């Protein structure tokens, strides 16, 4: 029997001995949902699990993040296992917190349990691994109401709207070489899938400022901000087919008159756009189109427009060499699923940000019912969503760090160079912008 096979048997036995407790932890987190950057109780629950393993635990990273380090017998690469702390803002969900509207409609509860479970297994075998394992609970994957980030950061000390960007900014990934996160899949999906790419996203808010006037007696004295905003929306729609097919651009917008009454010309109106694309160039192109459209609306009506752009997520591309190892181990645990590899999904994740800095893998588990972010979504089978991922996460770490960490070194070699953290932060800041435009 190879070293890795023997260590996997050991780790697996420890996880299975604690399977009921791992499932109960996933259920417990699901029943106590919290919103991004405010997941204090969830972070404490996760920290308590790591305490029991005797690990030194750091808390309060990017407000609520939790991190512990498990060291092997000698130096080597560092693999992070990540779980997300936050729930979705979805007050209509049956398990929503009545005070905050938070509900685990994205299944992040199972991620934390899978990381805690993998840690239990790995704690038995770390003395035979070459390298380090970081266990990390990350805040605020769901961007939620992006609009609130435009005027003032809603949380003290937070610069970016998503947790992993903040964790990168505060140096929480400085010692990490690669990262894995198992997300629960959609209801009716396969028990395991890997290798999907996901869109990036930016939010643009255009606030049109006109002039109010009596809508009946003297409308010519007004400047109709709502018509400027609808003109901008038409100008945006006119550009939809100008985006290259392979950029997978999606544009969703909300239009609102802020001070409208039927009796007066609206003086303020807002067009808010979520632009998504599978590549950074596509995101830049979509943001440029929104910006032109906003200026065009203002120009047509003689209004002034204030345009704020905020980068939400960078697109996700996972590392095939890392996906291969996770897939092999997952198939050993759950059997072959026949899932298609390498689909492109329209949703976003801040694992995309991390993937610009290091090799990442972002597989999906089974165990949930309903569609992500909908009122019927929840993890139902915690074994499929938490215990099975705990096993293949532990097995993957063993393949990466056993025998001189040959596996991890090969992943790093095949993934090639990535951005440095300062380069990533500069890109993120360059893609956010504030401008006031008015026809001279
Ligand atoms: Zn989500
Ligand atoms: Zn999610």
UniProtKB/TrEMBL annotation:
Under InterPro entries, the record lists: Amidohydrolase, Bact_exopeptidase_dim_dom, Peptidase_M20, Peptidase_M20/M20A_hydrolases, Peptidase_M20_dimer
Taken from the record, one Pfam family name reads Peptidase_M20
Q: Which PANTHER family match?
A: PEPTIDASE M20, PEPTIDASE M20 DIMERISATION DOMAIN-CONTAINING PROTEIN
TM segment ranges: none
Task: Output the GO biological process annotations, alphabetical, semicolon-separated.
Answer: folic acid catabolic process
Q: Where is the Peptidase M20 dimerisation domain?
A: 199-277
Q: Gene Ontology cellular component?
A: cytoplasm
- NCBIfam families tied to this protein: amidohydrolases
- From the UniProt record, which GO molecular function terms apply? dipeptidase activity; para-aminobenzoyl-glutamate hydrolase activity
- Recorded protein name is Amidase
Q: Tell me which domain of life the UniProt entry assigns to the organism this sequence originates from.
A: Bacteria
